Amino acid sequence: MPHALIVEDDLNTREALVELIAIEGFEVSSAGSVQEAQAQFADRRPDIILVDLQLPDGNGIDLVTSIGHGSGTQVVLITGHASIESAIEALRLGAADYLTKPVNIRRLKALLSRVPRNSQAHSEIDVFRTELTRLGRFGNMLGVSPAMQTLYDHVTRVAPTEASVLLLGESGTGKELAAQTIHELSLRQKQPFLPVNCGAISPHLIESEIFGHERGSFTGADRQHKGYFERANAGTLFLDEITEMPVELQVKLLRVLESGTFMRIGGHQELDTDVRIVAATNRNPEEAVREGKLRLDLYHRLNVFPLKIPALRERGSDVELLAQHFLSELNAANRSAKVLAPEALKNLNAYHWPGNVRELKNYMQRAFILSDEVIDACSLTPVFSSQDSAKTTLSVSVGTSLADVDRQLIFATLESCGGVKKRAADILGISLKTLYNRLEEYGENAGDEEEETHFPPEVDNDASAGNRNMYG
Description:
It is a single chain. By secondary structure, this protein is of the alpha/beta class. The protein has four domains: 115 residues, Rossmann fold; 191 residues, 3-Layer(aba) Sandwich (Rossmann fold); 79 residues, Orthogonal Bundle (Helicase, Ruva Protein, domain 3), CATH 1.10.8; 74 residues, Homeodomain-like (Arc Repressor Mutant, subunit A), CATH 1.10.10. It has 21 helices and 20 strands. β1, α1 and β2 form a beta-alpha-beta unit. α19 packs across α20 and α20 packs across α21. The C terminus is likely disordered. It holds the Pfam family Sigma54_activat. It comes from Keguizhuia sedimenti. This is Sigma-54 dependent transcriptional regulator. InterPro entries: AAA+_ATPase, AAA_lid_NorR, CheY-like_superfamily, Homeodomain-like_sf, HTH_Fis, P-loop_NTPase, Sig_transdc_resp-reg_receiver, Sigma_54_int.
């Protein structure tokens, strides 16, 4: 049976909480001060502590600090409406959630329902999770770089709590995957996870999508519609691109986060909601506040636990790990066994990936389509050329002869292709034979590869183009 400790100096409130929590299947003990609570904690570690913010010999935040992250005990702060800022500070320090007085019974029951009932099973899960992390997998995320290991550690700390999380990172870094991982490692994992892209919904429809509407509440509302807060009840709501949410709607969102209640558009009945919020933005949130795109009070409410998702260029060898992962997925989907050539991996690692993991995934799919059994260095060159002009632009001085420009262009293209002549000829738009002839003119040994050292006079690069594309 799970054990709960109630720390509350008001006797009536304490006894009421003890009775309510016992009904939910807990063994309950109580304390009226920080000192009493610490003594009880030392005697037996509870699974959950509900502690009042204001106590005769200190406050609940002191208890949160003394217990720390690694104890395995969930701490829920009980506070008055005037102390929300203190409650948010407690969340930053490690509290799982907070309740405002008078305590909402339904929300209290929801909190208690998420307390683990089998500590041994959770210990086994933690061991399994540690092993997966060592192998480069953590929930839905993939990577072994120090930047990702730091992220995994922070996710491990915040996921079991009820703290709001703000994910910060460039477009394409995998913020939704991080949000989903937080949900799946939380005590809400069996409940819904609903992602909402605030920038992809029309400003005229977003309030209805978030909060729902009643039939007849506006033109076209021919039926009742349940919004995301209602459908995600007891689960996690991921608000992506939060700075794109209309400012007037941000006011209503803040009210829901503070009160746990909302009304559908056109409705007159308040509905309770128990939703954890994970928000994300690819903008600097403080700049968004200064520009009026994000309300300051909402920013503080969401920014309880900020998490920075690293850009791909900051993740070192993860580029190769991710590329191989995407290739494995493509091979499995297409029943093939293509491999990455060493020079292709070198090119991938050298690129700065402004579009991050999403860009890498797209590049791998393109290279997969264009290649036969081996994905070589030049499979991605046309894309790299358009995206990374700083590395692929050829500069020539005015007055340079056309012959010399031609020579520089050929050698630059060959270098970008890792010396693969067939691919260089395709990019240059000339036949392989013409390329060999030019290289012979420049005094280069054109026949030192295994590819096409002998061919009929009329053969050009278009003759075999149909054989390079597995989709015909």
